[in-house]
Amino acid sequence: MSQTFLPPKWTEQLCDPYAVLGISVTADDRQILKRYHTLAKLLHPDRHTKSSNRDQELATAIFSHLINPAYEQLKNQHKRFSAIAMLLSEARVLKEQALSSESVLFQEIREMTAPQAELFYEEAMACYAEAQYKSLHQFYQVTQQIRILNLVYLQLHKSNLLLPQEPLPIISKVEVKPVQVTLSEETNVKPVLKNYAQRHYERAIEYIKLTKWTLAVQELRDAIKLEPHNSDYHALLGFVHLRQKLLGMARVYVTQALKLDPQHSLALKCATRLKIQPGENRNPKSIAKALSIAALLGGFKNGKRSQVKC
């Protein structure tokens, strides 16, 4: 199939390979590869056997001429930094009138503080990514929205924030010297199991003390993936969202924490601020999806401006 099958304006989207793949400009190697594999499954010809021949051809063309080149660009570190540099350059000269006709979403993120914008950006990106390739004929419109979102987001940050950074050390390095140990026959040695979820939780607490909200959110999400029924993790993540004035997301995790433990002290304290009624039980997945849609419509406007402290 020739590349002329795609409209010329579609191929112009390759100037932002992050938008083509539907990932944030801060995505790492693992996230880039994971998204590429997801798209490879979504656009595989076998998934379009019941569709028209034109849809099958369109799926193949998008994957071959857009997704593959975008992935090849981002998996190479040097090319990735070049792409970031080009986007930063475009973001610096982006004029206000260029966004005048866009969604209120972009006006919202521009008014947020940097930590608020970072959390909001990731949530909006996840929602766009979910919708990007559901309708192949709407791919261009959604990808264009992602591209503009990237530019607006980059306007709020300096270039050095996008360079690879060393992870924040929580425990200082300690020199370990070899020690000779003699075990008696009565000694009963048992292996110590590592609780990785608890480690994520403890690191999140340290990040919260340093007001590094984005890192705290990531640690708590990783902890919840490992132990999804731990009320402490949900309550603390709800607290972090509340401190960032993202009230919708705060309600999701506080409600889930109370569902797991109705007497959880932190969750109850946050619930009072969020006006969550006793016994309120809602599906976190449906709430999160609704919030993501609301975010695209400017639904976090009230949450952003509310002055709430837990």
Structural class: mainly alpha
Q: Helices and strands, in N-to-C order? A: HHHHHHHHHHHHHHH
**Helical stretch tally:** 15
* Helicity, as a percent range: 55-70%
Would you report the number of β strands? 0
Sequence stretches where pLDDT stays below 50 over 5 or more residues: 158-173, 183-193, 281-309
Strand content: under 5%
Largest sheet: none
Q: End-to-end span in angstroms? A: 58 Å
Average predicted confidence as pLDDT: 75
Shape annotation: globular
Radius of gyration: 23 Å
Write the SSE topology.
Elements: H1 8-11, H2 17-21, H3 29-42, H4 53-74, H5 77-92, H6 104-111, H7 114-132, H8 139-155, H9 196-209, H10 213-226, H11 231-243, H12 247-260, H13 265-274, H14 284-296, H15 301-305
Helix pairs in contact: 3-4, 5-8, 7-8, 7-14, 9-10, 10-11, 11-12, 11-13, 12-13, 12-14
Sum up the structure in keywords.
310 residues, mainly alpha, disordered C terminus
Explain how this protein is built.
- It is built from 15 helices and no strands.
- The protein is 61% helix and 0% strand.
- The N and C termini lie far apart (58 Å).
- The longest helix is centred in the N-terminal third of the chain and has 22 residues, at 53-74.
- It has helices at residues 8-11, 17-21, 29-42, 53-74, 77-92, 104-111, 114-132, 139-155, 196-209, 213-226, 231-243, 247-260, 265-274, 284-296, 301-305.
- It is mostly helical and 310 residues long.
